[in-house]
Amino acid sequence: MNWDFRTCPYTGLKVDKNADALMKVNAVVATVALLIGGLSAIGVLLTRWQAIHLFDAAWFYRLLTIHGMNMLIFFILFFEMAILYFASAVLLNSRVAAPKAGWVGFGLMLLGTILIEWMMFAGRADVLFTSYVPLRADPNFYLGVIFFAVGALTVVIQFFATLVIAKREKTYEGSVPLVTFGAATAAIIAVITLGHGAAVYIPTYLWSLGLMEMDAQIYRLVWWGLGHSSQQINVAAMVSVWYLLGAFTVGAVVINEKISRTAFVLYVLFISMASAHHLLVDPGMGPAWKVWNTSYAMYLAVLASMIHGFTVPAGIEVGQRLRGMTKGTFEWFRRAPWGDPGFSSLILSIIIFGFLGGITGVTFGTEQINIIAHNTLRIPGHFHATVVGGTALAFMGLTYYVIPLVFRKKVAFFPLAKMQPYIFAIGMTIFSIAMTFVGTFGVPRRHWDITFANSPFDLQFAPAVDLLLGVMGIGGLIAALGGGIYILITVWSVFLGTPMEGESA
Amino acid sequence: MPADGIPKGLTDPPAPLPPDIGEGTEEQTKATGTLILVFVFLAAFVVYYFVNWKLLSALWRIG
């Protein structure tokens, strides 16, 4: 078979055109999912903002389900599939192992996505992201999840096969680059995740057809092997993107390859155990199980993030110092390219992920403290900082490099693109902090109406809650504006944008 | 050379490190700025963790 390659004029990398096409379609679908998830986020936000309280209960839970699935699964995973092609075929100068299998995988993921979206918008799957049994959705919802998972698994297998081919055909020398190594850990965690997905969703599908019984306790236990681990794919992919953006934007160095690679391995070994922190107040699990999984094993995964949280900025600092920015302690920081959206996204992503998401997450992962935080708005306050302020922002920063390198188009509205990471980060920071604070007052998460109107009982929250919900709403709208600008720039650049020099329109 | 619509990392990429740079001087290889940021992070961590235990102790009084 003849393989068609092009050579990137900026990086000098040899790019298999199959990888090019597969990266493009995955990135486009990811952006569509981000748009759907973002619009539903505004609906959820304006309903939880008690002074506005926009939608009725049915549509609130429907939009919350749509928001969760689109943001946590479709946007992130389609984007990560594009990253897997980039980190394997492109970075290693290799061909894609089996392009047809790549298209089959993409097709299955798309089919699953359409099926799930249809069920959710039709009101036949108002079961939220967790779809906890005994809440029952239409069987097609679970079937869609199975299609999606099988498709994603196909792409992950393709990633490993491409690594083998690159090694066999000697397309690179020495060890694989750190970014590829990080993507490989994300792919291994993806296999663990999808294994849990199969273990929980195939029986749930049969249960939804009335063919078998489901145990709610077992469902929760196995489901979080999927639900939490899927977010850990995000973390491994996000950290890989951090290293990549550091190298692209300022020529960051890897200060110690062994330490960075060991930290990635810690994710693989310990992150599944960290899923236990979702069940810290679950009466079905014993204290020894909870304490072991969250107080010891989980901290080894946290340690990995703390290592990367040091090595990435330290690599940037040393890279800048080696290029002459040695004055004082922070010249390397002051003179960094703050107008490059790739760099600003990288730094803001590290700060929000570490300071807001990381600190709150480890604190809530402590069993005793979890008792006062569990099922309050403190929890979504935490994970919006990790997944949105951390992962999504890093992916947005990478997009500003993907548009010229992969789509070979100029970034449209570039002055706006320079501001976008700041708008999004400021909005998400205000939103996450306000949400976390309002949760401290005991305001529950996933709740349509905290005034409990027409309920047989009454519960009054502190007056500060109304103020904080308003601040949360304003922060959320600013973040939505930042997200909207990102989608505008991306869609315009890809479909209506100016081709790079030397490229035909 | 900066160009509109293309990030600086592509139009004006970081200068390649000279091959004879070796290990670099002490000034070039220390990461004191990052270390200071790490201690700021640690302080924030300690404060937030302590506040949460304090809150818990206020809610669940012993004795």
Describe the overall structure:
The complex is a heterodimer of chains A (about 500) and B (about 60). Chain A is built from 14 helices and 2 strands; from the N terminus they run E-E-H-H-H-H-H-H-H-H-H-H-H-H-H-H. Chain A has about 500 residues and is mainly α. In chain A, helix 6 packs across helix 12 and helix 12 packs antiparallel against helix 13. The longest helix of chain B has 28 residues, at about 30-60. Chain B has about 60 residues and is mainly α.
Oligomer: heterodimer
Give the CA-based shape of chain A. Answer: globular
Mean pLDDT of chain A: 94
N-end to C-end Cα span of chain B: 71 Å
Could you say which structural class the secondary elements and strand pairing of chain A correspond to?
mainly alpha
Strand fraction of chain A equals: under 5%
Low-confidence stretches of chain B: none
Task: Describe this protein with a few key phrases.
heterodimer, A: 505 residues, mainly alpha, two-stranded antiparallel sheet, 14 helices, 2 strands, globular, B: 63 residues, 3 helices, elongated
Helix and strand topology:
The complex is a heterodimer of chains A (505) and B (63).
Chain A: E1 5-7, E2 14-16, H1 17-48, H2 57-90, H3 99-121, H4 139-168, H5 178-208, H6 216-250, H7 257-274, H8 287-322, H9 331-334, H10 341-364, H11 367-373, H12 378-405, H13 414-440, H14 464-496
Antiparallel strand pairs in A: 1-2
Helix pairs in contact in A: 1-2, 1-3, 1-14, 2-3, 2-4, 2-5, 2-6, 3-4, 4-5, 5-6, 5-7, 6-7, 6-8, 6-10, 6-12, 7-8, 8-10, 10-12, 10-13, 12-13, 12-14, 13-14
Chain B: H1 8-11, H2 26-29, H3 32-59
